[in-house]
Give the backbone structure.
Amino acid sequence: MNRFATLKSLLEQRRVFKLVCGAGNEDPEEVRRLSMIYTLAGAIIHDVSANTDIVKAAAKGIDDAYALADNFKININIRPYINVSIGIKGDPHIRKAYIITEKCIGCGSCADVCRQEAIIKKGEWLVEEYRCIGCGDCENVCPSSAIYFTFKKPDFKKILPECVDAGCEIMELHGVSEDDEAVMNDWLLLNEIITDNFISVCLDRSLLSNKHLIQRIKKMYDITGERMIVQADGVPMSGEGDDFNTTLQAVACADIVIKSGIPVIVLISGGTNSKSGILAKQCGVNAHGISVGSYARKIVRPFIKNENFMYDKDLIKKSIEIAQHLVKSNMDALNG
Ligand code: SF4
Ligand code: SF4
């Protein structure tokens, strides 16, 4: 079986757990460690920023996992697929926060809530851009409206083929925008670059009505056919909690896509956690897989932040066990 057929089969068996490192996460060491742990925990797709250094870091993490597998008596059946994500203007996954110094009163509240530890004080408070994932938590707590966001659109025609050369096999468009033309142009570009494997679109209902969402998916499916994945996003980057309510909108969005009858592959995302597969099963939402970002990163963060992590077998073992529980709870529920 080729790599497309292998992934298609796993999706049809509802056995795909996707680790989301963060479309805006450009911290290579963090991505390497996440990829290593979640390869050993059974993740099939690793979603990373469209940046060749980050793709290489994910590939390195996967190689690290193979080197360690015997030590932990783990059999890695299928080498994970590296997916790169691109976004269009307006999509929260690919924006970067920055602080307007003149407005900042120095309270530090933004740093307290930043899950990426991206806000530091160097005389003034500032955002380390490479760590920022655009979640907006800092903006929500800032008492003086000092947080703003930038969006830089790279030259995807140049970068994406380089990402393929670095090891990326599948691609995703974060298409949360009302601009149908811009979204479809980027979709066509991904279809030109990836011709023999899956292409995914990540959509939520923050700007699109249910009807508009389905119309867009139908147009994309007419171009991409069986190679298309819809990542049905509930509330983007909201999944740090591990309860049913946090994951409710993610399951609901997947339900709407599945009920459309378009024969597309559907992954549940955006507010996903260890309960997502269970809620989906209870609700009769037969998605093909689960993508987990914020929660997957949060549960292993205390381990991977340790400077000795890569040399400490106990830390690695504990982080794998925690990640395995997340992967297994979702996969057992989806295909049980
Ligand atoms: S809170 Fe979110 S948006 Fe703000 S700096 Fe941290 S990662 Fe970026
Ligand atoms: S929360 Fe706002 S005012 Fe406080 S340190 Fe951060 S940017 Fe400055």
DSSP finds twelve helices and twelve strands in the chain. The mean pLDDT is 94. The first helix runs from residue 3 to 12.
